[in-house]
Amino acid sequence: MSENFTVVTAPYVELTITSNISPITSIKRFPKDLTIADLKMKLILLTGATMNMKLHLYQAKRSICSMDEDSSLLGSYPVEDGYILHVTDDSVTPVDYVECDVENRYQMSETEYAKKSDNFRAYKEKNLKNLSELKNTENLKQNEDKEKEEEKLTESFKIGDRCKAEVKNQPPRTGTIKYLGLTDFQPGHWVGIQYDEPVGKNDGSVKGKRYFECLMKYGGFVRPSSVTVGYFPEPDDIDEF
């Protein structure tokens, strides 16, 4: 008799973090659905490395693999609890640790420390700023890609098409397309619709500029991705059936 088995893997993995920057090691748990790019962001604060870091996985002294694809998930690599994740970043000067006289060590005031540009706080703030700029760049690219998709959808519609508008948290509404293109009230491409019922927000004009003609409350504008063109009979046509 055959039996079915289900392999269950833990959602987290515990790794030992080492680097060529510091002799200090740490043990951390990471979710396996974390992307390598997001993992690097966490490792910046742990090791002092930059986003230029290279990651390599070891089991004790045995090399397992490099982890170079930023968009891949951590769990897509053969990671197991107890493995070593080694961080290499040749753009960062390694830190030397020496013993010191704790009782007579030099202590810097908070004001003096804040003025220095080569301390860890300044380095951390710089990296956090770089991470923020990276996120902004990624968001900008995503918005540009989305707008290209909206423009392509707009080009597939034409004035007079019957359509259905489905906007989040609102009931579906049917109507006729009366306007396609850019507007002055919001950036991006929009579809102006004359609805079959008074469920809109305007009469085809917004902020004093007219885009099409219809009765008040019968007009509205939605993004192309919220519009489906097809056979949606007008109310008068339905009454004739």
TrEMBL record:
<dbReference type="InterPro" id="IPR045172">
    <property type="entry name" value="TBCB_Ubl"/>
</dbReference>
<dbReference type="InterPro" id="IPR000626">
    <property type="entry name" value="Ubiquitin-like_dom"/>
</dbReference>
<dbReference type="GO" id="GO:0031122">
    <property type="term" value="P:cytoplasmic microtubule organization"/>
</dbReference>
<dbReference type="GO" id="GO:0035371">
    <property type="term" value="C:microtubule plus-end"/>
</dbReference>
<keyword id="KW-0143">Chaperone</keyword>
<dbReference type="GO" id="GO:0005829">
    <property type="term" value="C:cytosol"/>
</dbReference>
<dbReference type="GO" id="GO:0005938">
    <property type="term" value="C:cell cortex"/>
</dbReference>
<feature type="domain" description="CAP-Gly">
    <location>
        <begin position="181"/>
        <end position="223"/>
    </location>
</feature>
<comment type="similarity">
    <text>Belongs to the TBCB family.</text>
</comment>
<dbReference type="GO" id="GO:0007021">
    <property type="term" value="P:tubulin complex assembly"/>
</dbReference>
<dbReference type="GO" id="GO:0051010">
    <property type="term" value="F:microtubule plus-end binding"/>
</dbReference>
<dbReference type="Pfam" id="PF14560">
    <property type="entry name" value="Ubiquitin_2"/>
</dbReference>
<dbReference type="InterPro" id="IPR000938">
    <property type="entry name" value="CAP-Gly_domain"/>
</dbReference>
<dbReference type="GO" id="GO:0007023">
    <property type="term" value="P:post-chaperonin tubulin folding pathway"/>
</dbReference>
<dbReference type="InterPro" id="IPR036859">
    <property type="entry name" value="CAP-Gly_dom_sf"/>
</dbReference>
<dbReference type="GO" id="GO:0005634">
    <property type="term" value="C:nucleus"/>
</dbReference>
<protein>
    <submittedName>
        <fullName>Tubulin-folding cofactor B isoform X1</fullName>
    </submittedName>
</protein>
<dbReference type="GO" id="GO:0043014">
    <property type="term" value="F:alpha-tubulin binding"/>
</dbReference>
<dbReference type="Pfam" id="PF01302">
    <property type="entry name" value="CAP_GLY"/>
</dbReference>
<dbReference type="InterPro" id="IPR029071">
    <property type="entry name" value="Ubiquitin-like_domsf"/>
</dbReference>
<keyword id="KW-0963">Cytoplasm</keyword>
